[in-house]
């Protein structure tokens, strides 16, 4: 899984993106550590096959993908 993220489009911060909880515990969102700018939220899949850790990893991946596609 890639941790590469594009620089923040607002403050130019590089490599300082965290994936944090969104509005509820099922949502994850990539957020700039510097200015707090956020990419669109992604919903964590919590049904079907997989463990909580796998769901979490997938949600993080998608949150970072959202970050990179917007930036
Ligand atoms: Zn920023």
Task: Give a written overview of the molecule.
- There is one protein chain.
- The chain has 71 residues and is of the alpha+beta class.
- It has one domain (17-70).
- Helices cover 27% and strands 18% of the residues.
- The chain is built from 1 helix and 3 strands, in the order βββα.
- It has one helix at residues 52-70, and strands spanning 17-21, 27-32, 42-43.
- Strands 1-2-3 form a 3-stranded antiparallel β-sheet.
- Strand 1 and strand 2 form a beta hairpin.
- The site of zinc ion (ZN) has 8 residues, from loops.
- Zinc ion (ZN) binds at residues 8, 10-11, 13, 32, 34-35, 37.
Mean pLDDT: 90
Structural class: alpha+beta
Major sheet size, sense and barrel closure: 3 strands, antiparallel
Secondary structure tally: strands: 3
Strand order of the largest sheet: 1-2-3
Q: Report Rg.
A: 12 Å
Apparent shape = elongated
Share of helix, binned = 25-40%
What proportion strand? 15-25%
Oligomer: single chain
The H/E string reads EEEH
Low-confidence stretches: none
- Measure the end-to-end span: 19 Å
Total of DSSP H or I helical runs spanning 4+ residues: 1
List the helices and strands and how they pair.
Blueprint: E1 17-21, E2 27-32, E3 42-43, H1 52-70
Antiparallel strand pairs: 1-2, 2-3
Bound molecules: zinc ion.
Task: Tell me briefly what this model is.
The protein has 71 residues and is of the alpha+beta class. The protein has one helix at residues 52-70; strands spanning 17-21, 27-32, 42-43. The chain has a three-stranded antiparallel β-sheet.
């Amino acid at each position: 899984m890639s941790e590469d993220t594009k620089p923040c489009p607002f403050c130019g911060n590089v490599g300082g993106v965290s994936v944090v909880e969104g509005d509820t515990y099922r949502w994850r969102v990539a957020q700039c550590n510097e200015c707090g700018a956020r990419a669109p939220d992604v919903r964590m899949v919590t049904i079907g096959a997989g463990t909580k850790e796998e769901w979490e990893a997938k949600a993080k991946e998608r949150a970072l993908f959202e970050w990179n596609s917007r930036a």
